[in-house]
Design brief:
single chain; mainly alpha; two-stranded antiparallel sheet; 9 helices; 2 strands; membrane; transmembrane; transmembrane helix
Length: 147
């Protein structure tokens, strides 16, 4: 078994890699397949390239939001699954930061085509990425309140 941080980081690199590291081959194959399917259908690589080049309007036009909306839940579920399988689950509420991050990133994705922060349109890559921060904070706070 891998340690949690290693499994989490590999899962961040590509959903499914953390599962491979944990010896969960079937789960890993399923996550990699789903990631590739959603990535291709959402045109996500082109969206990422346009976003990194600063062409946010082009990224918005390229994105297939019907598919892109699946990505945050798959991504954060794969990270949580790799985290919990590595070294065994110790914290009953460890999933909360992952769940709230997925939720906030999905909401960020929904509003990414028209929400401006400080007059800046962040688009389908940057606004969802920025949405991870409040998602983690809310998830950690709720976990702390429950415990």
């Amino acid at each position: 078994m891998a340690n949690r941080k290693e499994a989490l980081l590999w899962s961040i690199a590509l959903p499914g890699f953390g599962q491979f590291l944990n010896g969960k081959l079937i789960k890993g194959i399923v996550f990699v397949f789903l990631e590739l399917l959603i990535n291709v259908q959402a045109n996500f690589n082109e969206v990422i390239i346009s976003s990194f080049h600063g062409d946010i309007k082009k990224a918005i036009e390229q994105a297939d939001y019907q598919w892109l909306m699946f990505y945050p839940c798959l991504y954060f579920f794969a990270m949580w699954d790799a985290w919990k399988d590595a070294e065994g689950e110790k914290d009953r509420y460890a999933y909360l930061p992952f769940v709230f991050s997925a939720f906030f990133v999905t909401v960020g994705c929904i509003y990414s085509s028209n929400l401006r922060l400080f007059g800046i349109l962040f688009g389908p890559v940057w606004l969802p990425i920025l949405s991870v921060i409040p998602g983690l904070i809310v998830g950690l706070m709720i976990r702390k309140l429950i415990k």
